[in-house]
Each structure stands twice: as structure tokens, then as C-alpha cells.
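Possible regression after last week's pipeline update?

I re-ran a chain I had predicted before the update to compare outputs. Posting the input and the new output here so someone can diff against the archived version. Not blocking, just want to make sure nothing changed silently.
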Amino acid sequence: SVRLASDLAALRVENVQGQAEAEIHEEGRINALMRRLECLQREKGRIIVELEREEEMLTNTLQKKLNEVRREKMLLERQIEQEHLHNTHLLNSTSATNTSTTATTTTTTPVVTNATTNENSTTILPKKRNGGMNFNNNDIELNEDDDEEEEEEDDDDCGEQVMLEDLAGIQQEHDDDHEYGI
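New output (post-update):
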């Protein structure tokens, strides 16, 4: 019975040691899992910060592009408006010139569309940015000072010489287009 008691005590000690080792092993496993979880959380945080940074950069880039597109749109709208006003002015000037010329005169008068003088021409149609004005060619006189001031204006590639007959033909085509609903 002593031997049985000592065997029983030895089994209990082994059982306690086994449980202790199992607990230590389980605790080590839990600690390893916790470390892995912390690493994953740090990685997750790093990825989130990186994504937020990229999102901010993309937002800034898109905002810049949007502002650039808006600016270009505004410039194009201004240019269209200026060209419309310029064309209206040319049409008004052309119709005023056509009504002031006599029916017997068949000479063509060159028109300079950007208010710069031509050595062979004394007829100038100044480009007004605030809208067109109706006037006859005889109403305009330029001296050298006016010529220098007008050359300082922005050149918008409208400096080609146009014959009044050509403008009248363009106006006629434009009127025909509207007449036929084109």
C-alpha cells in the first residue's frame, strides 16, 4: 500500500507537471498569436496611412486638374465671346461699309481685322473687346501714336487681311444657312 501510495503520488506529480507544461506551451502559443496580431495591426495601420496619403495626393491632383479644366473652359468661353463680338463687329462694319459705298463703285477696300495698319491700306477696323460699334471707314483716322498703341494689343491671330467682297459673300452664305435652317 505504501508502494501504491508512492506510485499514486508520482502520477499526481507527473500530472501536475504535464498540466504546467501544457499551460506553458499554451501560454507560449497565445503569446505568439498576440505578437502576430500586433504585427498585423501595425501593418494594417501602415497600409491605412499609406492609402490615406495616396488618397490625399490623388484628391489634390484631381482638384488641380479640375481647376485647370475650369480655367481652360473659362478661357475658351471668353475667347468664343470675344470672337463672337469681333465677328458681330465685322458684320456690322461690313454692312455699314456696304451701305455707304455707291452702287457705281466696284473697287474693293481691304480690311485689317486686328487694328494694325497695312502699308497699302488706310482703312482700319479696330478690334473692340467690349463689343462692336457701327461706323463708316471715313470716321477713322490713325496717326503713328495710335498705330503703336494698337500694336501693343494682344495678337489673337486675327491679323489677316479680308476683302469686303469676301465678307459680303460670307454674310450671304450665313444668311442662306439661317434661311434654310442649317
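Follow-up from reviewer: compared with the archived run. The helical segments are 2-100, 144-151, 164-179. Marking as no regression found.
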